[in-house]
Specification:
It contains twelve helices and five strands. The protein is mainly α. A hairpin with a 2-residue loop joins strand 3 (92-97) and strand 4. Helix 8 packs antiparallel against helix 9. It is globular, with a radius of gyration of 20 Å.
Length: 273
Amino acid sequence: MKKKEEEMVEERARDLLERYLEIETDLELRPQSPIPPGYPVRITDIQEVEQVAVNLRQEWGLGNRPIESLTDLLEKEGIKVGTISAPVSFDAITFWHDTTPAIIIRDGVPGDRQRFSMAHELGHLMVEPSQDLDGERVANRFAGAFLVPKEAALEELGVNRRRLDLFELHLLKHQYGMSIQAWVHRAKDLGTIPEREYRRIFDLIDERGWRTREPGDQIPPEEPRRMKRLVMRAYAEDAISASRASELLGMSISEFCQIEEGRHGGFPIEMCD
């Protein structure tokens, strides 16, 4: 990003995190330690990321099943999640306040890309690569392994494939919430497909302009909900005033209600009455 864009993103992300922490203070909620003991795990080989991802899934009781809502999972485990409006050059960033991490993502991104960005940031939190490893490659590998563990990927794709069908990958995209492109990377990383098949698919994706938006029905973006719920809880219990609620939401109550009612099929929000 350009310097001004970077400064804008940081300012909006910090503002969101500050408001998030303030509502927890208003409700006298105890901070939760989101990083399990033993993490981040130091690795010296990128292949070790596979086991780190499996171990974290076990730590959080996920098994190998698809993650229905990554946003809800992260917030349940104590990691703050929020969205901000930002340039298309920005995907996600992690901020810290003392021992509390917050993953901030760009608003309006397709759900599969959004989920991979969050899992990528989670990789930065849970894995400490040695200096000779590329930290971004490590975080990407962790993201794929966390969203679709090796055992599940091989069960879905098979061990050795000469060719993958794009519609097959589209169906898996909707089952696991991970993009077609990420599935192709996953298949290559696990040795399921040869290099020529990997290149064939990405040449096709480039030729048809599918890098930023894949074809077919899209996965809707996930909605971070915990902060909004806390503000509404405090307001409903008269723990905060209407002006304080607006301040914490970062917008007027009427604007908040208009946005949320539009997002949720016109559901009547009591705090708007």
